[in-house]
Amino acid sequence: MTSTIQRLPRNGVDTPSLFATLDAVKGQNEIAKFQFRASNTWLTGTRSRSTASGFYGAMQEMQHKNQTVLEFDHPTVLVGTDNAPTPVEYLLHAIAACLTAGIANIAAARGVELTKVTSTVEGDIDLLGILGLSDESVRNGYQRIRVAFHIEGDADDETLRGIVEQSRRRSAVYDALSNPTPVVIDVVTG
Question: Cβ(104)–Cβ(12) under 8 Å?
């Protein structure tokens, strides 16, 4: 007689698919190479619109189920029309969402049932850098980003803190924000 361990979905995560993906990538590393894309169009002033629909992954071109459209702007105090969040605010959403997704996946993989995960993200910017009003001593981007999590589940505090820490260590957005990432800008005119 053989017994099979059945992994059920937990925290809304399809754990059988999660473990199947891990096994597939272990067996064939080249399927782990992904390329995500976005396109952006200037609308007016500081306002623009980005779309994301296609990406490359698992050795093939793929499409999201739905095309995502994001609007960007600046508040009126920063010469915008305040019709959408600023691009730097989207970075705050991105790190919160990336860490939260990781927490859900890691907790599910560890058999921890989550009951609450919320976060608050704050980022400090000194406009002297962006406006070119410093002697290059003030950076253009965030000087510091703080993420505060409130997490509850059927595990002790140490386990829950460990899940958040593993999510931080595996987060692509955290990595991109905390380590230099080469950015290449090509320009076509005319």
Answer: yes
